[in-house]
Design a protein that fits this description.
The protein is mainly α. The chain is built from seven helices and no strands. Helix 3 crosses helix 6 (89-107) and helix 4 (61-74) packs across helix 6 (89-107). The N and C termini lie far apart (47 Å).
Length: 151
């Protein structure tokens, strides 16, 4: 039942929540989530749906990825999501570990590495276009005057 709710809320055509809602709740665009889901399913069999010991379908791949992302995006403790997903704390922790290992395996060469000169040049250009010259050298941007800063 929770899989159907998740699908109706976020993934089915005419879903309850808009793309903007999705991005707010998942901290990424829907197409990025779908790419991530596709990639982890093809690399790690853990993210494929299986039957449980009673012969019922286990957690869906959408559920597994959603749970891991929610824990990471909101710094949710494992025992805080029992009411929402009805999954034990140990299963959620195992799921998170599998997800993190899979993401590192998949993307470490492309995204989880030291930036090269081309990356730095691109970042500097983007920052300067947005009025943040010198941003790379001052990652905190502490020299920038923030008009809405409360202090």
């Amino acid at each position: 039942m929770s899989h159907d709710t998740l699908m109706n809320n976020y993934f089915n055509p005419n879903s309850v929540y808009t793309e903007k809602d999705f991005r707010c709740r998942f901290r990424m665009r829907r197409h990025v989530f779908k790419r991530l889901l596709h990639d982890v399913q093809h690399v790690n069999p853990y993210f494929q749906q299986k039957l449980d010991r009673a012969g019922r379908p286990g957690l869906s791949p959408h559920h597994k990825v959603t749970i891991a992302l929610r824990m990471l995006a909101y710094a949710s403790p494992a025992d805080a999501m029992h009411d929402t997903y009805g999954i034990s704390k140990s299963t959620r922790l195992d799921n998170l570990v599998e997800f993190c290992h899979t993401v590192v395996q998949l993307y470490k060469e492309e995204y989880l590495r030291e930036p090269n000169q081309a990356d730095m040049d691109w970042l500097i250009c983007k920052a300067e276009d947005r009025g943040f010259s010198g941003m790379i050298w001052s990652l905190g941007c502490m020299h920038w005057q923030w008009k809405n800063c409360p202090t």
